[in-house]
Amino acid sequence: QVQLVESGGGLVQAGGSLRLSCAASGRTFVNYAMGWFLQAPGKEREFVAGISWRPSTTRYADSVRGRFTISRDKAKNTVYLQMNSLKPEDTAVYYCAAAAAALSLGVAESPSSYGYWGQGTQVTVSS
Fold first, then answer.
1. What is the Cα–Cα distance from 73 to 24, expressed in whole angstroms?
2. What is the pLDDT of residues 90-114, one digit of tens each?
3. Is 21 exposed, middle or buried (0-12, 13-18, 19+ CB in 10 A)?
4. Are 72 and 57 in contact (CB under 8 A)?
5. How many helices and strands in the chain, by DSSP H and E?
6. Are 121 and 20 contacting, i.e. CB atoms less than 8 angstroms apart?
7. Can you tell me the distance from the alpha carbon of 67 to that of 50, in angstroms, rounded to the nearest whole number?
8. Beta-carbon count within 10 A of 118 CB
9. Distance, CA of 122 to CA of 18 (rounded, Å)
């Protein structure tokens, strides 16, 4: 059974940092692009950051560029999202996702391009 399990969420004050982890099990995703998405209450799921199966290619939403960093450890089948300078508007449930197809070019921003999802982890930033 394929599973993506997020961890590292929590409550933090504005300006603080959190590091989210996404551990994959059931199969290897070394040849898959991975992404992080967020979903705030009453809103659609939106792209935050992604990393291609070639780690040199990353993509970020404008709202987080310069503050968030995505990385992956293929040996551990794990993806990370380092979040710095957090703002109250970053408050949401954060989801890890793996691309639906292996060896895809670049990093997709559409949730429909991802075929595997974690259960999400809550991030709350207080002002």
1. 11
2. 999 999 999 998 888 889 999 999 9
3. middle
4. no
5. 0, 11
6. yes
7. 14
8. 22
9. 11
